[in-house]
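Data deposition worksheet. Section B asks for the primary sequence of the deposited chain exactly as it was used as input, without tags or linkers unless they were present during the calculation. Section C holds the resulting structure in token form. Section D is free text for depositor observations; keep each observation to a single sentence. Incomplete worksheets are returned to the depositor.
Section A, Depositor: J.P.
Section B:
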Amino acid sequence: MSFEFLHPISEDILAEVESLHKSTLGKQLSFHTANDFPDLTEIKVAIIGVVESRRSVRENDVPFNFNHIRKEFYKLYAGNWNERIADLGDIYAGDSVDDTYFLLKQVTEDLLNRSIIPIILGGSQDLAYAQYRAYDDYGQMVNLVNVDAQFDLGDTEQDLCNKSYVGKMVVNEPYNLFNYANIGYQTYFNAQEEINLIDKLFFEAYRLGEISSDITLAEPVMRDANFVTLDVTSVAMTNVNPSMPNGFSGKEICALSRYAGISDKVSSLGIYEIQDLDLTKNSAMLVSQILWYFIEGVNFRKKEYNNSFLKEFTKFTVPLENEHLIFYRSELSGRWWVEIPNSKNFNNKLNKQSLLSCSHQDYLDACNQVIPERWFKAYRKNEI
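Section C:
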């Protein structure tokens, strides 16, 4: 069992939990201690740290851990939550980076098989590749949403690193990545060739200013994700990151985290590049609040995507010049979806008609004969 290789929570951290108020998270979590591993039967969310950053392009040999984040997270009070949470401790760097990848993939896969949502605290973002590989036996292709100032497509001819892991997902077999969506890219950090490639592959990219102007644009994108990765250096330096003058505010990054949590489809979250933070109390508090908002979202999932939409959704058919778009509105949440027709020649594990998350504005645009861009890209990928 892969859990045998996890290292327990520090005794010093656990000692501090004893003095916390009974309603704090520290008093409600299940912990992996030196003497005990939690019963996972009723656990819904599991936190794992991964102390690995050897494939980061930034030279940073300063040792790091997640103790500051854990201290701040345990102090927070739970919301009106029903789901059980466990902190399973840390994966330490293996003899080789590939050893770390292998163990992270196995731990993530074992948790997914138990219907437990892993929250991975990283280390360098190349660890997202191991997170992705945990879905190799998922049975269908998966969607990734990455909150990041850069696309991280990189040079796929070179070794995997924290600036090329997305490119490796695209080119390495087995091919499981159906859609990649970047939220928060900053144009001057990305080569024009990469911007063009994102468009050519019918992937999605949303600029920082676009999302900051209307954070709700991210909700349908997150709703379609199977797994989410978040680069904490995408937060502006005024909050936690001295190397990033522009970026998301603390409020915006927490809103994005909650959108990820409330998505019925998101089954794992990775929060990466923590080793590059100036881990002051302020930055540790922000990461702990990103965790809190994700778990808040999980606790308020509608679980409507698995319902029969013929019963739970209202259907709207919009005639266009050469197409009929079929929209569905949930009577439970008021959220919208649009149907992607299946191509006869399509064989990439989706193998069925699927619903694409959208907004009410997309429906209104379609009524005005404007095809939603997300629908167009998904439809074109179906034809490839």
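Section D:
The chain has 13 helices and 13 strands.
The two ends are 39 Å apart (CA to CA).
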